Amino acid sequence: MNPSGPSRPAAGFFSARRKLILVWVVTALVLLGLVTVAVVRTGPAAGTDFLAGPQNQRQEHAAAPAPQTPSPEALAAQAAVALDADIQRILTENSGYRIGVVLADTRGGERRSYGDGSEFVAASTAKIITAAAYYHLVETGEKSLDVPLGSYDAAFQLKAMVNASSNDAWLLLMQDIGYPRLIDYAASIRISYDPEQNLLTPAEMAELLKQLSTGKLLNAEHTQELLGYMQQTNNERLIPAAVGPDITVQHKYGELGGYVHDAAVLTSGERSYALAIYTWGEDGESEERLNMIHELAGVVTKAMLE
């Protein structure tokens, strides 16, 4: 019997055990670190949505760029297609009339033609050829605006012929020019015109207005004066009645028997178009005819100028 009680383990034993435990802990920590590095290296690449939750995906979807606005060229092309369809519809709905419509951008480009493109009796729309021819002779020194012509001078007769559509003034001016010279002047601006027959196509009338409005026929002073006579005329019931106040209308109408025409330069800002509408029917300037001309002018201005 040992009076001192059970013997205690030696101190060295506990020290060795603690060292062993410490080695195990360190080893476990090293292994855990290696596993963590491996997981990180083999995880999804940065910038992918592999770990993105539904909320993140919704946010990315909401941040997608908005559709681009169509370019002015694309919008113009769409408007032209719609205009073609509208004019064809109007012509079909008014098939009892003979109708020719031509639209020309004064800045250039191809003319747009609809309906009957052959010759019409031009009625008073042809007075613009006479006016341009007379101004041309004034510019070459062969004529004068101050010379007496009838009961007034040539300047008065020019304004009366265009602004009030006076046939007496038209006859006086044509006689003063001479029919052969008037024919030659028309040919010089690429228009086939005989004043005794008074025939024009809608395309010729639109071309005449295009050249006039862009200063290709007359000097700046005479161009401005003639176009001024074509505003606020004695008959504003045709094209002018169909367009808004923000559009400038310089026009010459013509009515003779069953022929009812109007040809105008339509301007809004930097945009300008020559529009010729020639019509023939048995009803003269009827309400139905006016409505048809208004509708044609309306779809043109909506598509091209508004």
Short description, anyone?
Its EC number is 3.5.2.6. By secondary structure, this protein is of the alpha+beta class.
Give the topology.
Blueprint: H1 11-41, H2 54-62, H3 72-93, E1 98-105, E2 112-115, E3 120-121, H4 127-139, E4 148-149, E5 152-153, H5 154-163, H6 167-177, H7 179-188, E6 199-200, H8 202-213, H9 220-229, E7 248-256, E8 259-268, E9 271-280, H10 287-304
Q: In CATH terms, what is the architecture?
A: 3-Layer(aba) Sandwich
Portion of residues in helices? 40-55%
Whole-angstrom Rg: 43 Å
- Terminal Cα span: 123 Å
Based on helices, strands and strand pairing, what is the structural class? alpha+beta
Q: What is the number of strand segments?
A: 9
User: What low-confidence regions span 5 or more consecutive residues with pLDDT below 50?
Assistant: 1-14, 34-54
Characterize the biggest β-sheet: 5 strands, antiparallel
Order of helices and strands: HHHEEEHEEHHHEHHEEEH
User: Approximately how much beta-strand content do the residues carry?
Assistant: 15-25%
Mean pLDDT: 86
Shape: globular
Number of helical elements: 10
Overall tally of domains: 1
CATH topology: Beta-lactamase
Give me the side-by-side strand order of the main sheet: 2-1-9-8-7
Kindly provide the name of the CATH class: Alpha Beta
Give the name of the CATH superfamily: DD-peptidase/beta-lactamase superfamily
Domain Beta-lactamase class A catalytic: 100-279
GO molecular function, one term: beta-lactamase activity
EC number: 3.5.2.6
InterPro entries: Beta-lactam/transpept-like, Beta-lactam_cat, Beta-lactam_class-A
